[in-house]
Amino acid sequence: MWRLPGSRAALRGVRTAVERHTRAEAATETAGAMERAVVRCVPSEPKLSLSFALADGSHKNMQRDQSEPLGRALSRIATNALKGHAKAAAAKKSRKNRPNASGDVACAGPGPEPAAACEPVVKLYYREEAVAEDVLNVDAWQDGAVLQIGDVKYKVERNPPAFTELQLPRYIMAGFPVCPKLSLEFGDPASSVFRWYKEAKPGAAEPEGGGPSSLSPSSPSPSWTETGVNERVYTPSNADIGLRLKLHCTPGNGQRFGPSRELESVCPVEAGPGTCTFDHRHLYTKKVTDDSLVRTVSYNLLADTYAQTEFSRSVLYPYCAPYALELDYRQNLIQKELTGYNADLICLQEVDRSVFTDSLVPALEAFGLEGVFRIKQHEGLATFYRKAKFTLLSQHDISFHEALESDPLHKELLEKLVLYPSAQERVLQRSSVLQVSVLQSTKDSSKRICVANTHLYWHPKGGYIRLIQMAVALAHIRHVSCDLYAGIPVIFCGDFNSTPSTGMYHFVVNGNIPEDHEDWASNGEEERCNMSLTHFFKLKSACGEPAYTNYVGGFHGCLDYIFIDLNALEVEQVIPLPSHEEVTTHQALPSVSHPSDHIALVCDLKWK
């Protein structure tokens, strides 16, 4: 393990050095011939771990109390070393007595039996002085100390950068970014080194230098060739179709590197679907916007929990190829679509928890975004923001029915609703939630913004329920943006399940809804709940009123919006939606070229 100057220039120099070796561990050898002993010791845990390889080739992982005297740990190491020596000697004797090719037993010949091995001397040194055996483990195992076991010396590395999780997606397609899921301890992805390999094609010459896990002629494993990509994300080309991929990565923290790891894809790269509905849209979003703009995306992803049902396959989306409804396939399209927008804010609906953690976070983090998640029941909401532009100040998520029942903020609305018991019961049964995040500009701390995200009740006859949910949402957003913060602008994204002709949309953009609006009886006279509502925001739909944002076999209409605060924000540009021809190429959505039944809204907003 090398220690490095903290500057970025020094880190780049080290990366270059690492890349000259077929394995990053070779860097350890340049610092001396010592083996490596890795110690993990954190204050919140009672034990520390110690990992090293013995001379016989066996690998030891020990757990010791941090408060234990060093002498006990060293004694245990000596015992392990002695056992290892005995096993190695027994294996050697067994090999000598094994029958040879002619059937005769090979004899070691006359001579004295080897003396019984004695326990090796085990010492720990720090700055060339032996560490006293009564020193506690937590203080004894310092970075840079030297552990000696017999004649072998180990350099102690305390808390080096390390991967705690590393995983490649199961389904990989040409033309779509491969974003490994990874978690690091004592390190960060930006300071780590990545190198991608692909299988050498059958009959191809052995690559020069070989690369990690290159083969000897007798090895049955595939050989690997470098792709030339040394970034966290790799996008396979058509030339990679039929070949598996391998990622070799070395964790770093800007000052040093930890043990490298390799992982191979389970399946080979498959052919992509060709042109997707979002490819033309990406021509408008090739670059991240400057600091005066906020590129915002709102998108209902179609949760896997809804896509993978017999009802979905046979009734809702019978026109969609079954494989195109599978999550592994759709995740490739979703990742490519979202990363290609180069957005600053992304508000997502119908997000499965596993999709958030295993797919969206790795993909969007690799492109500079960080996200937060709010579960509903089987799926939830996710909001991502560009880390170079924003920091997360606070979160103020609510469940509509819980807030309505318990938050004094909604006391007046609840008093109106209790006059209509049937309607009240239906409203309080709904599980819809509101995600609210307050962000602060990294360039100008005076610029803060309240980003809200929701998915309102879906049923076509639930108009009055959506009205009440929106009333709760706007009251809560006002509390956050005006009471908790000093009048900060609002961006409100979501799938509102309401076309522009509905009461919900009228309420949002006009600031009021009369008590005689037809939506108060959206589910018949029995559940009618006449009331007038107002809110003080001045909001408008940043992307206007498209003909549709949801297009399935039996319905198409505009259900999704990005509502903005007209007092503080204006629209710089709206990214055009896919053409009708693109949307209907495969009859409707989702399809092999579009991962959801909704269409993403994308616009660039400007601070006034």
From TrEMBL:
Query: What is catalysed by this protein?
Result: Exonucleolytic cleavage of poly(A) to 5'-AMP
Concerning InterPro entries, the annotation shows: CCR4/nocturin_mRNA_transcr, Endo/exonu/phosph_ase_sf, Endo/exonuclease/phosphatase, PDE12-like_N
Top EC class of this enzyme: hydrolase
The 2',5'-phosphodiesterase 12-like N-terminal domain covers 160-270
In terms of domain of life, where is this protein from?
Eukaryota
One Pfam family from the record: PDE12-like_N
**Per the UniProt record, which EC number(s) apply here?**
3.1.13.4
Q: Where is this region: Disordered?
A: 202-229
Write down any Gene Ontology CC term. mitochondrial matrix
Q: Which residues form the Endonuclease/exonuclease/phosphatase domain?
A: 298-598
Q: Which GO terms describe its biological process?
A: mRNA processing; nuclear-transcribed mRNA catabolic process, deadenylation-dependent decay
Q: Which family does it belong to?
A: Belongs to the CCR4/nocturin family.
What is the recorded name of this protein?
2',5'-phosphodiesterase 12
Q: Which organism is it from?
A: Callorhinus ursinus
Gene behind this chain? Answer: PDE12
